[in-house]
Amino acid sequence: MAMEKMWAGRFQKALDKKADDFNSSLRFDCRMYAQDIKGSMAHAAMLAKQGILPQSEVDLIIDGLEGILRDIDAGKLAFDGDAEDIHMFIEAELTKRIGDAGKRLHTARSRNDQVAVDIRLYLRDEAETVVSLIAELVKAVTDKAEESADIIAPGYTHLQRAQPISFGHQLAAYAMMLLRDISRIKDAVKRMNYSPLGSCALAGTTYPTDRAFAAQKLGFDGIVQNSIDGVSDRDFCVELMSAFAVLMMHLSRFSEEIVLWSSWEFKFIELDDSYTTGSSIMPQKKNPDMAELVRGKTGRVYGNLMALLTTLKGLPLAYNKDMQEDKEAIFDSLDTVKMCLEVFAPMIATMKVNGENTYRAAQKGFINATDLADYLAKKGMPFRAAYKIVGQIVAACIEKDRVLDNFPLEEYKKYSELFEEDLYDEISLETCVNKRTSAGGASPSSVKTQVAYVKEELKKI
User: Fold this and answer.
1) Is 279 a catalytic residue?
2) Given 43, 158, 166, 443, which residue is catalytic?
């Protein structure tokens, strides 16, 4: 026999089966069962404190809820597909177990504020997990940056070789991005951590409730100050999904570089076999599929954010059924982010850097040209004049199939008498990298300072 709807009193006919399935959210909001039960316990405790329900009934309610939680956790209680949502399922199960006392739990509460508090609690818990996963990735990246601090590599702009850097310098850049991702998520949680419980349908209640008491029991920093805002706000979902989108953008950029670096054209790194796949027809292939999948799944997280923004943009206050669409979007983004992070950290930790190849690549492309211009500038020539002369020398090197390192001194002197034998030491790759000791720069010593900074920041998380 199908479960009777809690709102059935007004209606003469049962809901059409297809309409019922379409309306139901249990298949995706059931993951919030623990938060729903936790919120109900806090609400019941508040009802007792305020004398709205007798303590004896509230004790019975809380015992019943604890039993339901234990049974779901243990796999002894399956979700009833006839239930409209997780809230109705738990209330119906509670009533079945303890009788009429279960029907009184919903006093001074609506599903509108109930779902709003559930999703805040759920996302607060899950955001903490995401932060921990990002921290693990930051550690893996930082460790690899520290290992690679002395490895010389070409740095790029416009995907053209630009200046010599430490390979660890490039990796440390991603550690900094990921630290900001942690900060963004934690900031979003701060604004999320206010309780809408007690807002009821939209207008509050005539019962003498204590919203602050329930909020405190649930670990919130306070209450949402406007009851309409309490049930209609999904800013916190949008903000968290925005932070996830930025995180995925960073992971996607990193993935793109991993794909390039692991190609035969670069061969800067080799990914561990555990994080690559082969081809069904080409036996030589070792494909960076994990990085490519992360890059691909970024679009999915972007799409979820745009879907929710589009859903919310035309909604009048207060609650509308459209808002049920928040859950599948945010849950999918959350699951995708966690899945990507779980595979990304060990992929980086097991990655090998080929220093010989990065060095050979750095020897080409005239990436020490800026240092040659700086050489003249330090001897008194205006930088713009030095820039022009070095550009002319590069053009001559290209014409004569030479590089700056082996362009003869007598040829240099045709462009300026300021050139001396010491220029070759000044433009060596080792000098170019090691002397970039400015804060945040590419030198090994600077990279190690950056690594130390990241490690200190990780201790604060």
Assistant:
1) yes
2) 158
| 123-151 pLDDT tens trace | 999 999 999 999 999 999 999 999 999 99
Could you read off the pLDDT of 287-319 as tens digits, one per residue? 999 999 999 999 999 999 999 999 999 999 999
CA distances, 122 to each of 151, 218, 419 (Å):
44, 12, 67
For β-strands 269-270 and 352-353, DSSP reports them as: antiparallel
Please, what sign has the CA dihedral across residues 238, 240, 246, 252?
negative
Q: Which of 278, 298, 297, 280 is nearest to 288 (CA)?
A: 278
Do the strands 160-166 and 269-270 form a parallel or antiparallel pair, or are they unpaired? unpaired
Other Cβ atoms closer than 10 A to 187: 13
Q: Where are the alpha helices (DSSP H) in 317-408?
A: 325-349, 355-362, 369-378, 383-399
Q: What is the per-residue pLDDT across 413-423, written as a single tens digit (0 to 9) for each?
A: 999 999 999 99
Type of residue numbered 17: K
DSSP state of 195: B
State the pTM of this model. 0.92
Active site residue 158: yes
Q: Which of 169, 279, 428, 438 is catalytic?
A: 279
**Token pair 């604004």: residue:** 191
Does position 373 have pLDDT exceeding 90, yes or no? yes
Q: Which domains does the chain have, with CATH numbers?
A: 20-107 (1.10.275.10), 123-149+168-258+270-350 (1.20.200.10), 369-427 (1.10.40.30)
- Chain CA centroid to CA 194, Å: 22
How is residue 401 written in tokens?
A: 């199939």
Confidence of residue 1 (pLDDT cuts 50, 70, 90): very low
Task: Say how far apart CA 449 and CA 146 lie, in whole Å.
Answer: 10
Non-local CB neighbours of 326 within 8 Å, separated by 6+ positions: 119, 234, 237, 308, 311
DSSP state for residue 159 in the 8-state scheme = T
Q: If we measure between CA atoms, which residue out of 96, 126, 112, 147 comes closest to residue 7? A: 112
Residues 442 and 165 sit within 8 Å (Cβ to Cβ): yes
Tokens representing 62? 């809380």
Tokens of 427: 């433009």
Between the two ends of the chain, the Cα-to-Cα distance in Å is 51
Nearest-angstrom CA–CA distance, 405 and 424: 6
Distance, in Å, from the CA atom of 133 to the CA atom of 227, rounded to the nearest integer, reads 35
Average pLDDT, the chain: 94
Look at residues 88, 94, 80 and name the one whose alpha carbon lies nearest to residue 41.
Answer: 94
